[in-house]
Structure formats: C-alpha cells, structure tokens
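Ticket #4471: structure export looks truncated?
Reporter: QA, pipeline team
Priority: medium

Steps to reproduce: submit the single chain below to the structure queue and open the exported record.
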Amino acid sequence: MATRSFRLSVTQRILLVVAILAVALFGYWVTSRGAGATPSASSTSSAPAGPVPVGAADAQKQLGELTIAARTSMDGYSREKFPHWASQGSSCDTREVVLKRDGVDVKTDKECRATAGTWKSVYDDETWTKPTDLDIDHMVPLGQAWASGAKSWTTEKRGQFANDLTRPQLFAVTDNLNQQKSDKAPDQWKPPLVAFWCTYATDWIVVKHYYGLTVTQGEKTALTDMLRRC
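Actual output as written to the record:
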C-alpha cells in the first residue's frame, strides 16, 4: 500500500506560523517585563544614599578657585555656634540618619537610636558593631570652618553646614580618630588609611568650595599631593 503523504493547506500553514510567532512574542514580553520590574519594597533599602565623590579633575579645578588666606583666630568659637544634630523627621536627628546611612543591617529603637549594626570606618577600614564606638565626623571640622570664614556666617548657615547631608561632610568613623583629627586641616592631619586620601581630598575641597571657605597655602599643597593618589 502506498504511503499517504500529509500536507498542510495554505491556510493551515499561515495559522501555524501565526501561532509560533504569538508564542515567541509572549515569551519575550514576559522576559522583558521581569527584567524591568520595580524591586519590591522589602528589597529596597530605606537608608538614604550618601553623597557621590567628585572626580579628581573637578576637585583640582575647584581647589584652584578657592581663596588662599591665613587661618583667622579661634576667638569666640564654640560648637554651640554650629547647631548640630538637627531633626531630620520621623523622630531622627542628623547623627542617627548618618549612622543608618553608613551602616549595614542597622537596627533602631522607637526613638530612632541605632541599637545594632555593622559599620566600616572609612578613615582606617576598621569594622565596628557598637554605635558607641563611632563618632559622626565633620569632613571640614566646625572649628576649621570658623577659622576659614564661618565666623562671619549667620547661625542658620552654620547650622546648615553642621547638618549637611547633601555634600560629603558627615561620616561615621572610629571615635578616637575623630578626636585625633579634631579641627585640623589636611596639612596637619590625614586619615591613617592612605587608600582613602584621594576621596578625603576631593570631599574636603567640595565642602570648602560650596561654602566659600578659604584654604592656607600649606593646606592647598597637602590637598594637591593627596589628589595625586587618585
């Protein structure tokens, strides 16, 4: 008996091609939709993002725009003239916001105080698990700002400077290093972690440039040397 051949009509062929294309398009839609999906709330961190460091070239340009002047007297200076740790909403103050931003798996109590977490200090690469082992350092210290222009500011502007979360001005660091640094400029003190010197210099310059603070010649030379490590 001869074998009967099976052939599709033209209409059947068209319908088959349409079906194959439909399946392929559906698969592509599902894949692309998944790739572009918005992360769920549970996978998105609620901690604020930190400032992004500027490039060395931009920092060098800003450094060249700073006024060189001798530091003025510290007469009249006190930390109270820089109202700090202002309220940032949701019962949190500036210090608590920085601890949450700079830490990992930070847990807080109902008053927003950090109770647990892990923090790595950018100044020495040391890791800490107790909030009490950390200070919130002002990149450009309050006393340093006073001696390079902030003495003439209003209290409101000094408060903005002391609580600035937009510029790279506030960092959670090892407490004793913050105390060693005190009000010193980069020609007087540098972080022990040399790998951080580039970022330290660019951050310092960005803050001073934004607030129109002056630098000494020695300070400018130290910053220029640190930028060479970028």
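Status: closed, not a bug. The export was complete when the record was re-opened. Leaving a note from the reviewer for reference: The two ends are 85 Å apart (CA to CA).
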